[in-house]
Amino acid sequence: MPARRVILELGAGNDLHGGDYTKAALRAVQDALHHSSLSMLRALQVDPKAMLVDVTIGVQQPGQVDAERVRASLPHGKVTVQVVKGGLDVPDAERHDPAVIATAAIAVRLELP
């Protein structure tokens, strides 16, 4: 049976100094997670390990994100991570130290009857 999306949470994160895209991505994921509660899963008696968790990260330089670190930061489910062009870099011409802003979308799918 096809899994259906039951949760979609969005988040934003940044690295204001250092230009670390992974740090910004991890912060975006944590922001999204803190907007969410798994009370629905408890009410339906669904094991959190059964969740299919699809994470999409948007940053200006997708190749600079360690997707495995992002995947490992999710506490439950079978997690996949896709990194795409998005987010925002805010340049600091004086210091050559851009602020990196990442966005995250976390979709949870369940196999429901």
From TrEMBL:
Domain of life: Bacteria
Keywords associated with the record: GTP-binding, Nucleotide-binding
One term of GO molecular function: GTP binding
NCBIfam families cross-referenced by the UniProt entry: lin0512_fam (TIGR02058)
Protein name: Lin0512 family protein
